[in-house]
């Protein structure tokens, strides 16, 4: 029952690392290990140190903000940590950003899903993993854009990309909240498909525009 929930993100990470032949598979062990460790620590901390279980009865906006924490803060914290402590170049940092964040979600998403009362729902078992994979991909693309704008000292561009990242990070929480409160029927499924397609297009355009990191880095 939980096969797709548990295996979809790790399988995507492995596939991603295999197709990026400019680096050996072993070169991704570092970011993957950091992401997995962060996911395990976060799950343990939430399980044993945050004693009040969240119940989505407060309303749409409160539930939306609760989910936003899992789509906004992990990429910001992990990418900032990676950028600060990794001594590698921008090309490697950006390429490894996806396995870094996705490895975190590979642990944390199954934990929060299986511990949820809705753990047997189609949304939690199938739709949510796809949405979080998309979140990892668009976060990587924004990491590239923000990093390059900072390095080129374009403050206005950096601010625009940062605001855009916050806005797009709000899409998954909005979709999940629509599903939870059963607003507009199957609107959440339609929006999920649109979000996945838009993420793919945005990701491809970003890395084609940056010439797969070859021209600008």
UniProtKB/TrEMBL annotation:
Domain of life of the source: Bacteria
Keywords: Membrane, Transmembrane, Transmembrane helix
Transmembrane segments: 6-25, 32-51, 63-85, 97-116, 122-146, 158-179, 185-203
Keyword flag Transmembrane: yes
Name of the protein this chain belongs to: Uncharacterized protein
